[in-house]
Design goal:
The chain has one domain: Alpha-Beta Plaits (2-Layer Sandwich). The protein is built from three helices and four strands, in the order βαββαβα. The strands form two sheets. A two-stranded antiparallel ribbon has the order 1-4. The relative contact order is 0.30. The mean pLDDT is about 90. Bound molecules: iron/sulfur cluster (SF4) (2 copies). The site of one iron/sulfur cluster (SF4) has 16 residues, from α1.
Length: about 90
């Protein structure tokens, strides 16, 4: 696995039905891996969505989000993925 293909350090999970579509997390994410979806949720808002890779696990999106339960940042899971990647590369 090359340097550019290294495993993500974090994994973000977004609950679209808890999201109010304010966009704060999208603006705050340093690597810009969040966006507002084109679809609408139960509130008629465009919920935040993850691009699928590049999350560093910094947790900034979690701290700026005003909606409890809309964002979960997993770091331990990412470490497990890194360990699995390292084992696969060995
Ligand atoms: S944890 Fe950090 S890098 Fe990951 S989506 Fe949230 S703000 Fe972006
Ligand atoms: S900060 Fe929270 S409520 Fe606002 S768009 Fe992001 S996930 Fe949705």
């Amino acid at each position: 696995m090359s340097e550019t293909e290294k495993a993500d350090r974090g994994l973000v999970e977004l609950n679209s039905e808890e999201c109010k579509g304010c966009g704060l997390c999208v603006e705050a994410c340093p690597p810009a891996v969040l966006r507002l979806a084109e679809t609408l949720n139960q509130y008629g808002m465009h919920p935040a969505a993850y691009l699928g890779h590049g999350c560093t696990g910094c947790g900034i999106c979690f701290f700026v989000c005003p909606e409890p339960g809309a964002i979960t940042v997993l770091r331990a899971a990412a470490r497990k993925l890194e360990e699995q990647a390292a084992e696969a590369a060995a």
